[in-house]
Specification:
globular; TIM Barrel; 325 residues; nine-stranded parallel β-sheet; two-stranded antiparallel sheet; 10 helices; binds iron/sulfur cluster; alpha/beta
């Protein structure tokens, strides 16, 4: 399939099908077509998102063995690889949220392992919402939940939820794909904003599998789309499989930008500078537990700071919103 023809279809406003998405993913990363692909993704992000850059921040509330036991995660209970076990108290979380707000963020994510009690999570959410300016969105990144819980999250002040059907869900994880999808549906039905991501991408995943998740995100009409590569954490079962390159990740981000057509922002995770000329305009800072790190306070290790990601976005010519810093 000719790449020029597919890119022209995107320019004409046509939504791409799976075969077209796979053709774009198959573009050789050293070819002329690669530059045509990232050029269009970049152009669309700069024009449709008004050249605006976004900083999101995530606090990982607990570092504890998790029963879902994902084979790539440092907190899977069968291979726990973190350097500690802890749960942040509510005052510490509120204080961390304040610091992040003062640094200037657009959206704040609170993440837990799947076994974290929902009642405690709702309490944390309410306390954080109390100190959060109205213009900062509050997003839950937790295990599966039903519609009633989705409504409770909304009532507590959450504006959205990050939730996905992971690549090889049910094979590399013990979660059931149907359960993940039920949660996605509950999020949307409750009127929460759904944040989606193709993750965790490793060298073994096929372009067909990756394209399926881009199309799923489009079906849910997501505002913010993301792609994330798997970080091989030592002592996790998938460690030996390695990781894809920043160049490959940037290409996948460009394709996701064109296939999914998010209406607010496009993210790559973890931050990669070259992705910012491939249609990516949003990055995450991280604090606390992180499934891609074995240091349980990731701000001392893999986690990027708000200042660091702001610098990356500014270096790429994006205009930043916050005047808080
Ligand atoms: S990725 Fe999330 S659900 Fe899976 S083991 Fe880690 S904390 Fe649990």
């Amino acid at each position: 399939m000719k790449i020029d023809g597919i890119l022209n279809s995107v320019r004409d406003g046509k939504l791409l099908d799976k075969q077209e998405a796979v053709s774009l993913l198959n573009v050789d990363n050293t070819s002329d077509d690669f530059y045509k692909l990232i050029s269009l993704a970049n152009e669309m992000t700069r024009s449709e998102f008004n050249n605006k850059g976004f900083i999101f921040a995530q606090i990982g509330l607990n570092a504890e063995p998790c029963s879902v036991n994902c084979k790539f995660c440092s907190m899977g209970k069968g291979h726990y690889a973190m350097d500690g076990v802890w749960k942040k108290d509510i005052d510490a979380i509120v204080s961390e949220a304040k610091t992040l707000i003062d640094c200037g963020i657009d959206d704040l994510f609170l993440m837990t392992t799947a076994d974290y009690p929902i009642s405690q999570f709702l309490d944390v959410g309410k306390r954080v919402r109390d100190i959060l300016p109205d213009n900062i969105r509050l997003v839950a990144n937790i295990g599966d939940f039903d519609y009633d819980t989705a409504l409770k999250l909304k009532e507590a002040g959450f504006t959205g939820a990050y939730h996905i059907k992971r690549l090889r869900e049910g094979i590399d994880t013990t979660a059931r794909p149907e359960t993940r999808i039920r949660t996605l549906d509950s999020i949307v039905k409750a009127g929460l904003e759904l944040y989606y991501c193709v993750e965790p991408i490793g060298p073994e995943h096929t372009y067909e599998e990756i394209a399926d998740e881009m199309l799923r995100a489009r079906e849910y009409n997501v505002g913010v789309m993301a792609v994330m590569r798997r970080i091989p954490v030592k002592d996790t079962p998938l460690y030996e499989k390695g990781q894809i390159s920043p160049l490959e990740l940037s290409k996948i981000a460009a394709v996701a930008r064109l296939v999914t057509r998010p209406h607010r922002a496009m993210n790559v995770h973890e931050p990669v500078q070259m992705s910012l000329i491939c249609g990516v305009n949003q990055l995450y800072a991280e604090v606390g537990a992180n499934p891609r790190d074995d240091v349980s306070n990731t701000e001392q290790s893999r986690g990027f700071t708000v200042e660091g990601v702001r610098q990356m976005l500014e270096d790429a010519g994006y205009e930043m919103n916050s005047s808080a810093y």
